[in-house]
Design goal:
The chain has about 150 residues and is of the alpha+beta class. It has helices at about 40-55, 70-80, 90-95, 100-110, 140-150; strands at about 1-5, 15-20, 20-25, 90, 125. The N and C termini lie far apart (about 40 Å).
């Protein structure tokens, strides 16, 4: 496994890669993980994240991702990647699309190993409220990301 730590407006982020695929993005520094400067996918992800934080959007679709999770979680995460920047879907909307329930979608959101790149922050409550967020400083981080994308003011 290779890692790359970057600074961002939502704190230090550590990207993890294995076999040329991004496997995780975590808040803070991955102190025990081996460092690299030659992993192409980590360099690509770092540049795209820099672009994202600079202008509020980036096309992460070209990144090779390999999030670890159940088949259901992977279906939810795939659906999240289809939500365009600047838009939000409710847990219920995603659940309906996947023939599931909102709580199961919420569980998959909380288990998302590659937040921001797999944009779980774009999933909100049916009543329009922000809902929870498992990354960074929780709801505050989710609000920062949604403001950056122009979704909320």
């Amino acid at each position: 496994m290779e890692t790359l730590c970057i600074k961002s407006p939502v704190g230090e982020l550590t990207l993890f890669a294995e076999d040329a695929h991004i496997t995780a993005l975590c808040w803070g520094r991955g102190a025990d993980a081996p460092r690299t400067t030659k992993c192409v996918v980590l360099a690509q992800a770092s540049k795209l994240l820099a672009d994202y934080f600079k202008v509020g959007h980036a096309d992460f679709s070209a990144l090779a991702l390999n999030p670890r999770g159940t088949p259901f979680q992977k279906r939810v995460w795939q659906r999240m990647t289809e939500i365009p920047t600047g838009h939000c879907h409710s847990y219920g909307e995603v659940a309906k699309h996947l023939n599931s329930g909102p709580r199961a979608v919420g569980g998959a959101c909380g288990a998302n190993p590659i937040p921001i790149i797999i944009p779980c922050h774009r999933i909100i409550n049916a009543n329009g409220k922000i809902g929870n967020y498992s990354g960074g400083d929780g709801v505050q981080t989710k609000k920062i990301l949604l403001r950056l994308e122009g979704t909320i003011s």
